[in-house]
Model the fold of this input.
Amino acid sequence: MKLYLAGWQATSAERETQLIKAGATTHRCISFANLIKMPGWSYYIPGVLEGYEVCVKHNIGIMFDSGVFSYRQFRRKLIARDDKKTLAILPDENAFTQLYVDYCKKNAKHWDFYVTMDLSFDSAANFKRHVFLEKAGLRPVPVIHGDMDGRLSILERYKDRGYSYVCLGSDPRTRTSVRQKRAYFDSAFNILEKLGMTAHGLAVTAPWLVLSYPWYSVDSSSWSRAAGYGNIIRFNLQTGRMTSLHISEKGNIANAKSMSLDAMACGKAMRRAIEAEGYDFTELQESYTARHEYNAFTMQELAKAANSHNRGEGWRQLF
Done:
């Protein structure tokens, strides 16, 4: 399984170079939303462009995301604020799509793959958009979220168009519990196996998801967010679980979500355990970049576990 590390928080030429030299990352997920300059747009981040260029220079495997989620969310915020001025200058969906088409045609040779434009969670609507991109000269990887009723018959339509690899996500509005998500992914992988297709997991971070299904690849940004919150993440191979430990007073604890505040995090036992791994605990407390490197290696441990012979039903018994 390939692991594409996402997250704009880590990116700058310096940080990206350090991650690569340390061997902490071999694959990166980059969003078009962070690279594009356009009127009214606030998601462009120079550091992301710097990091992307470093990745291309060092032949890092790149998954290129269309950025439509950011675009959709941004438009919703502008509408909610009744910001007519910004809405008037922001490119509409057609213009944004054309920008993406032009960028992909020019730069796709540097990437492992790039994804289609899933501007909604409606499979039929996204299929039409996908066909439009094909007619424009692109061959993006399809994105499937599963409709409100969980229908996955759309997979057959992509198979008929010659696709054997899809990006698989889940509509967060309808699947919140582990039980609901498991039922959905069980169904999806059952169909994928019958069709002879493989899947990339969109924003798949939870170990139970990573370890329970035969993903060809996944992407995750939680490692980057955790570092920004002052956390390091640790993976337990025996239990198949990930914990987040807050070790720095400089992190933004107020914004940390699903964070395990372990009293041992700054204790002597935890310090000894981490330093036994070859890390300077004080540096991890004080350095955002050091935490990024540590967390990236932790994610690699999860990826290695997913590639082990224990993958699948053996792991599912733990959850």
